[in-house]
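User: Reviewer 2 asked us to show a designed sequence for the structure in our supplementary figure. I'm pasting the structure tokens here. Could you produce the per-position amino acids so we can include them in the response letter?
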């Protein structure tokens, strides 16, 4: 594997997506109304009366489901991009998929997860612009001395 940086950056982005998007999605969708009312709603209630707890919970569940769908889409895009770039086969296609993973992270989280999306954009840029040493007759990792 010659594209370790691209794969590593993409995987770090996926791990962050799983932790943050997946964690939020799992926590919010498994929460009942009473727990939500006691733990989350007091933080969010600025300007909202206590009678709107059910509406607030419904909105948070919708956001959590949206984050879950975004996470699944990002997982698929990054795994396919990693498969494309694994043996230095299709770096341009991998860059396009990393770019779409970043855009879907931005749009799917309503621009909340822009630092995570930046990792996917960085991986896409590395796929396009980073040159790897080509293998020669002398060995796979041979780099000639140029004095």
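Assistant: Here is a per-position design you can include in the supplement:
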């Amino acid at each position: 594997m010659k594209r370790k940086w691209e794969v590593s950056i993409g995987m770090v982005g996926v791990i962050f997506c799983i932790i943050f998007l997946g964690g939020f999605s799992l926590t919010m969708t498994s929460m009942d109304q009473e727990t939500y009312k006691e733990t989350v709603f007091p933080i969010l209630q600025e300007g909202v009366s206590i009678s709107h707890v059910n509406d607030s919970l419904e909105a948070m569940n919708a956001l959590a489901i949206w984050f879950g769908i975004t996470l699944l889409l990002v997982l698929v895009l990054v795994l396919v991009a990693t498969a494309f770039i694994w043996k230095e086969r299709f770096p341009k296609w991998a860059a396009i998929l990393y770019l779409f993973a970043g855009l879907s992270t931005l749009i799917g989280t309503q621009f909340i997860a822009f630092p995570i999306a930046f990792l996917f954009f960085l991986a896409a840029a590395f796929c396009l612009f980073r040159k790897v040493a080509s293998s020669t007759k002398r060995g796979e990792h041979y780099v000639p001395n140029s004095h």
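For the response letter, you might also mention the following. The mean pLDDT is 88. The two ends are 28 Å apart (CA to CA).
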